């Protein structure tokens, strides 16, 4: 059985087989007929072109939808995301990463606040056989049957913890995380997740999901741009601009560095206050792990505001992959010998 991990986020969908990874924006678009296929001087990468048909509906996904679809959609609405977006995004990632008719053990995660409501929903949605059609940039259509034999859904922040403590064989590497009390701050696009692992036991008291993801800061930046340019910039088009520090709108370049510093600082202060309130009784936390794509973006603003020993993601690595790589290692831990072992994290 092949082990696949998928992290289906409001901002990005990430997947890993342990040896290769895939990241694309969580955007769906209508699949129209493109007269001129490929790049003008180069064809780009395969990840630039993701077109899939699921349940009779054909989609452009990610960069392709952003670039080519007349009707493209991106949501921060919880119910809409799980009802409409999750299945095509998950199957698109699976179809790109695995072979047809290959038995798959799938590990994914959910924010703490969504876990109880959507854990079984996701399992039912993804478990079983799925017939899909992939269309290559050349127009060639390929039928694939995705066979998902096992689905394991875990609380999202534990992905980053498993990534730190497990090696690529799914075995315990850094054992200090087993014996310590660990606080995890996972800042994603829409949500921020806070959880505590007390010697590998989940703490309900110390766990919560809030809507203080990086999208909140992007929304404020987009608002300032709208005042200056009269253009509504979609939040998913701000990733590169914020990282670069500027954006060009209708020939005029707007500096984003000053506004980014302000709103990222405000968001970091809000998250630090939430940590202080939520973990007020957990003064014995040994280590705090700051993770997620938003966590990496906010690290220099947030780390000085948090009391205690803080572990951040290596700047040379893609922080968006921390959870999904941990999911894969956990899948390896569960299924590498063909027999499920007891979960590493026990609920109280």
Explain how this protein is built.
The structure is a single chain. The protein contains 10 helices and 18 strands. It has 348 residues and is α/β, with parallel strands linked by helices. The chain folds into 2 domains: 2-155, ATPase, nucleotide binding domain (Nucleotidyltransferase, domain 5, 2-Layer Sandwich); 176-213 and 260-320, Nucleotidyltransferase, domain 5. The strands form 3 sheets. A 10-stranded mixed beta sheet has the order 3-2-1-8-10-9-5-6-4-7, sandwiched between helices. Strands 17-16-11-12-13-18 form a 6-stranded mixed beta sheet, sandwiched between helices. It has a two-stranded antiparallel sheet with strand order 14-15. A hairpin with a 3-residue loop joins β1 and β2. α8 (257-278) crosses α9. The longest helix is centred in the C-terminal third of the chain and has 22 residues, at 257-278.
Structural class by SSE content: alpha/beta
CATH superfamily of the largest domain: ATPase, nucleotide binding domain
- Overall helicity: 25-40%
Write down how many β-strands occur, each being a DSSP E stretch of 2 or more residues.
Answer: 18
Which CATH-level-2 architecture of the largest domain? 2-Layer Sandwich
CATH class of the largest domain, named Alpha Beta
User: What's the gyration radius in Å?
Assistant: 20 Å
Q: N-to-C SSE series?
A: EEEEEEHEHEHEEHHEEEHHEEHEHEHE
| Number of domains as seen in the coordinates | 2
Q: How confident is the prediction overall: mean pLDDT?
A: 88
Quick one: overall form? globular
Largest sheet: number of strands, sense, barrel closure: 10 strands, mixed
Strand order of the largest sheet: 3-2-1-8-10-9-5-6-4-7
By CATH, the topology of the largest domain is Nucleotidyltransferase, domain 5
């Amino acid at each position: 059985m092949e082990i696949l991990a998928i992290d289906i986020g409001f901002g990005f969908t990430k997947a890993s087989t342990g040896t290769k990874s895939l990241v694309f924006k969580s955007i769906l678009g209508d699949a129209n007929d493109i007269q001129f296929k490929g790049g003008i001087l180069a064809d780009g990468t395969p990840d630039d072109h993701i077109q899939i048909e699921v349940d009779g509906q054909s989609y452009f996904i990610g960069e392709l939808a952003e670039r080519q679809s007349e009707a493209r959609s991106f949501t921060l609405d919880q119910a809409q995301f799980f009802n409409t977006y999750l299945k095509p995004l998950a199957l698109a990632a699976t179809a790109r990463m695995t072979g047809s008719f290959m038995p798959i053990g799938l590990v994914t995660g959910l924010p703490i606040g969504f876990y109880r409501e959507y854990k079984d929903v996701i399992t039912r949605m993804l478990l079983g056989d799925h017939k899909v059609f992939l269309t290559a940039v050349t127009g060639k259509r390929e039928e694939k049957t995705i066979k998902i034999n096992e689905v394991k859904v875990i609380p999202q922040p534990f992905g980053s913890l498993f990534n730190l403590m497990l090696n690529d064989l799914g075995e315990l590497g850094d054992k200090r995380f087993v014996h310590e009390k660990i606080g995890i701050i996972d800042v994603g696009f829409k949500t921020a997740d806070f959880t505590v692992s007390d010697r590998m036991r989940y703490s309900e008291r110390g766990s919560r999901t809030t809507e203080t993801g990086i999208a909140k800061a992007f929304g404020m930046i987009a608002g300032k741009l709208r005042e200056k340019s009269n253009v509504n910039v979609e939040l998913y088009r701000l990733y590169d601009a914020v990282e670069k520090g500027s954006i060009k709108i209708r020939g005029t370049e707007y500096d984003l560095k000053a506004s980014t510093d302000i709103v990222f600082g405000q968001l970091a202060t809000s998250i630090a206050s939430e940590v202080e309130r939520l973990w007020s009784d957990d003064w014995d936390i040994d280590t705090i792990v700051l993770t997620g794509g938003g966590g990496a973006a906010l690290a220099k603003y947030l780390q000085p505001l948090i009391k205690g020993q803080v572990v951040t993601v290596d700047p040379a690595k893609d922080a968006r992959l921390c959870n999904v790589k941990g999911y894969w290692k956990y899948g390896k831990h569960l299924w590498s010998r063909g027999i499920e072992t007891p979960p590493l994290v026990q609920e109280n």
